[in-house]
Amino acid sequence: MVIKHILVLFFLIFQYSSAKVTYNVVTFGAKADGRLDTKTAFLKAWNLSCASTTPAIIYVPAGRYLIASAITFSGQACKSKAITFKIYGTLVAPSSYNAIGNDEVWIKFYRVNHVTISGGTLDAQGGSLWACKSSGKTCPKGATTLGIYHSQNIVISNLRSLNSQMFHIILYACNNAKLQGDDCVSIGPGNSNVWIEKVLCGPGHGISIGSLGWELQEAGVQNITVKTTTFVGTQNGVRIKAWARRSNGFVKNIVFKQVTMVNVQYPIIIDGNYCPNKRNCPNDLSGVKISNVVYEDVHGTSATQVAVKFDCNKGSPCNGIRLKDVNLVYAGKPAVSSCSYAAGTASGLLLPTSCL
Ligand SMILES: *[C@@H]1O[C@H](CO)[C@@H](O)[C@H](O)[C@H]1NC(C)=O
Ligand SMILES: *[C@@H]1O[C@H](CO)[C@@H](O)[C@H](O)[C@H]1NC(C)=O
Questions:
Q1: Nearest ligand to the C-alpha of residue 195?
Q2: pLDDT digit string (tens) for 78-110?
């Protein structure tokens, strides 16, 4: 009896100590030459990490690792408490766009919990697809580089995403996610409690919440913070975008703060009437309710005169917009702000003058 108890105690101490198990993808046959497909090696490392009852590290040494087709890391049957990808190298997609161009996502995490991705580079080699698209030929839509779906407790830090075919990163229906040091980000329906910090974005479309409101029944987005972020030469800075369609979706409790804009076309924008080519928007009014959005300490330069634009609609006006210390200039001339169906408060230094 005594011995059994001691063993149990020993086991518990072992469990709660910082003991971690490390799986190096190279030991599963991955070669860092950028030519051999290393997908199976990554999946073997994932499967073992997922089955491990101690926290696991998937270690990716320096070098280039080809992931030749779309890969899914599924957490559905995992026993693990935590899995960390420690990446020193680069994961590369094939240079020919067809390999992943018809997939929704190149690297996908599905129903995972407590996953950290730390360091490393993802290179989707999207150049050939972009060349195809600009030549006017018929080309695949393109894959998002990294997609995290229906997951919880996600941390992504110091990850670089290069040459994506579509979006760099998509979070979909995730709870508790923290992104640090990444490129531009898009936050879709159903995401809550997301912290985005120290992102350098540009060129690109900026950081967007949306598009939302495509579906009639749609999960909302709430408690998103975007902090200490710089946009350089992007189309948008911080954007909220909702389709001009009927929907019960919503966006609330959003904070954008300490944001620097360098020559950004639409630094602060809520586009609540999104409907490209006026197609698929039968009643032209967005149902998505947008409320409690804070913009604090947003400064820099706008590439167009309308530096602040809140374009909401009669069907669901924007409420609780708060501007504090916004200083955006346009080529030496005064920038302007434009509001439609937007209400809220403004304080501190405000350039352009608030239209709320
Ligand atoms: C990983 O686990 C899944 C699910 O159990 C299995 O289908 C797959 O074959 C495994 N892959 C490898 C490379 O071991
Ligand atoms: C909001 O999200 C943050 C993480 O970004 C979390 O720490 C905080 O508890 C959340 N707040 C609420 C009210 O859920």
A1: 2
A2: 998 899 999 999 999 999 999 999 999 999 999
